[in-house]
Amino acid sequence: MLPYAPDESLPKELAIARAIAAVPHPGGGVREWTFADATQAHGWWLVVLEERRAVHVVEVCARTGDVRVVTSRAAMPPTGNRNRP
């Protein structure tokens, strides 16, 4: 049973919570998110989650609550010639 009426959209906070639950956790300990936000487009919530070592993009259906991890990527430090003389 969904915690909202079928004619309503899934709330943003619930979409973020479902996205967090869908991202695999490799190992023990508590996961600390440094950023979590979502925007809705065409009936889907697009959720971006960032932790210290990775960034994840997750789609959550605003109607059914179905979740799909689009991508997970290891965070890489910026590269280039910054701060070089």
Overall 3D form? globular
- Uncertain regions spanning at least 5 consecutive residues: none
- Largest sheet entry: 4 strands, antiparallel
Helical element count? 1
Q: How much of the polypeptide forms β-strand, as a percent range?
A: 35-45%
Count of distinct strands: 4
Radius of gyration, in Å, reads 16 Å
Terminal-residue CA separation: 61 Å
Structural class: mainly beta
Helical percent range? 10-25%
Structure, described:
By secondary structure, this protein is mainly β. 13% of the residues lie in helices and 39% in strands. The protein contains one helix and four strands. The protein has one helix at 12-22, and strands at 33-41, 44-51, 54-61, 67-74. It has a four-stranded antiparallel β-sheet with strand order 1-2-3-4. A hairpin with a 5-residue loop joins strand 3 and strand 4 (67-74). The longest helix has 11 residues, at 12-22. The radius of gyration is 16 Å and the shape is globular. The mean pLDDT is 84.
Descriptive labels:
4 strands, globular, 39% strand, 13% helix, 85 residues, mainly beta, 4-stranded antiparallel β-sheet
List the helices and strands and how they pair.
Blueprint: H1 12-22, E1 33-41, E2 44-51, E3 54-61, E4 67-74
Q: TL;DR?
A:
The chain has one helix and four strands. It has 85 residues and is mainly beta.
